[in-house]
Amino acid sequence: FHIGEREEKCIIEDIPSDTLVVGNYKVQRWDIHKHDFLESAPGLGMFVTVTSPTGEVLLSKLYGPQGTFSFTSYLSGEHIICFQSNSTRFAVIAGSKLRIHLDIRVGEHFLDESAIQAKDKVNEVNVRLEHLIEQIHHVTREQDYEREREEKFRKTSEETNSNILWWAIVQTLILLSVGIWQIKSLRDFFIAKKLV
């Protein structure tokens, strides 16, 4: 994605609780003379801020033109990940565009292949088994989170349906009472005018 040099850009990620999130990014700066983005942006860094669903700041750190950040979610919900350059130029002068390449991996734990190759076969199987168990736990947490969201959505739907039913009953009672009142008023009017 592209941002201005002094602009802040935020991404919302829906993350289950107790989940590791790893993000890699690389910043490129627009070169006016070459009319292209430079591969590196020397001296340019990025402030990365991560906010939990309750508004608590989980991570707030300055990184270089490329870097890796990670955090663990303690609550399930929408986490906000914000990026802003550390450019010291004034907003009027800072008209340069930045391109950010971002890769966010949620809940993944990667095997270190070099460590596996150094071990013997028994240890390799053991490490792979631990990795599979970790992945199973991650899938279980994802399913629990989806179950929570589905239950919350079902409760909201049931409450909405109940409110609609009561509103329909109230509307019907109002219409019936207005109709009865109109009939009684007309009858009294006709009797008063001696038309009946």
Automatic annotation (TrEMBL):
Keywords associated with the record: Endoplasmic reticulum, Membrane, Signal, Transmembrane, Transmembrane helix
An annotated GO cellular component: endoplasmic reticulum membrane
Domain GOLD: residue ranges: 8-106
Keyword Amino-acid biosynthesis: no
Membrane topology term: Single-pass type I membrane protein
Transmembrane residue ranges: 164-183
Subcellular location: Endoplasmic reticulum membrane; Membrane
Sequence similarity: Belongs to the EMP24/GP25L family.
Protein name (record): TMD11 protein
Gene of this entry: Tmed11
